[in-house]
Amino acid sequence: MQDGLWQAVLGEIELTVSRGSYVTWFKNTSLLKNKDDTVVIGVPNVFIKQQLERKFNQLISDTLAKNGITPTHIEYKIHSGHLPAKKTEDEPVLTTQNAPRPAAKALTSALTHTYRQGLNERYTFENFIVGSGNELAYAACQAIATTPGTKYNPLFIYGGVGIGKTHLIQAVGNAIMVRNPGSRVVYISTEQFIQEFLDAIRYKKNTDFAGYYRSADVLIIDDMQFIAGKEKTQEEFFHTFNALHQANKQVIISSDKPPKEIPTLEDRLRSRFAWGMSIDMQNPDFETRCAIVQTKAHSHGATIPQPVVEYLATYVQTNIRELEGALNQLLAWCEMRGLEPDVTIATNLFGAHRTRPKHLSAKQIIERTAKHFQVPMEDMLGPKRDKDIVVPRQVAMYILRSELHLSFPKIARELGRKDHTTAIHSVEKIEKESAQDADIRSAISEIKERLYA
Ligand code: ADP
Ligand code: MG
Question: Is-above-0.90 flag for pTM?
Fold first, then answer.
């Protein structure tokens, strides 16, 4: 359970901080304890501990709170035997070919070969959902996995963030390794390629570097857009590319834009990329997104009702990483409270984005809430403190916050209060209660439904 919760927190942090920060500071953390108002986070070393304490404590605290955890203490503990935290495609790739890679899991232990560096076994064809938008890329990748180096060389896949490019090109590498464990498959991000190249020059290891990449059977290089402006690296890559291509070795490239839109990409590279096949990967459509949500939920051992699946697929339209993050957050939230996921909970967590009209006023919200609880408007805005007036007032404040994102002072003013801390407490109280109390939850969703009807 803790693991699920922490995965949800990490998933969200991953979207907030830069990729480098995420990999450096968060990737190998785990949740050791969540009890008695104390959260203990396991970290690999003292350096990371200090960084998290100094720079990221607030972010961690906020993200925990979003997932319903509000501890009074957060502690960081050096913990060597941590479970590997969320895996990403950013597995470190070692610079020299002799350096051992940390042992892979049982299933692929036969594949722990120096040349499967950078491949993450989590990405397979089997767990990739095919739909309109990605079917062409998928078909090309499968063809390459069957007979690398013969067709579509190079394969150049481009498209937006989080739509499965890394997953697919890694799946090719993994499939080739399964089929032929002796293959020399190299996966590397362009950023790492650049870094290694610079290091090789600095430490006078140019020949090792060149030799390593030029003797690959399959070179998979991710996020080629980052090579823009890196002239020396482009030149090096040009030679690597030629060597591989001439030897009929497969090259697979991904990028967030087509070659012609990568600024300052050398013409000779651009024309090389045009030799093979270029595929424009599109955002997955609604049906595909639904299938992804269902499959991912299933892999967590959860089944979620179709309306919730559709809600999520509507809530996140392009980035599948965000879609996974939303799903994880929802599952963790429900798991902690022993609730079954439903649309009301999802709406409370993520808001009613899909139907929001542009002109909803604060007044409309207060009036609608008053009507729902059958409280006269003058009592909503007046000084009375009876429970049957206080609760509707708090609900109105909560909805003002969640739907219009008003500031607390503004919320207080709308309800005739002077002190904005009242608004803060009210919103917090309803937030907590709506997670536990079905009556409050259904009141909120009914009011919202009417507002947006
Ligand atoms: P990109 O490299 O295009 O930015 P990724 O390959 O990193 O995107 O995908 C982001 C996340 O979404 C990954 O966890 C990946 O497994 C998942 N994903 C994307 N597309 C699919 C799909 N069609 N089926 C299953 N998972 C997917
Ligand atoms: Mg990627």
Answer: no
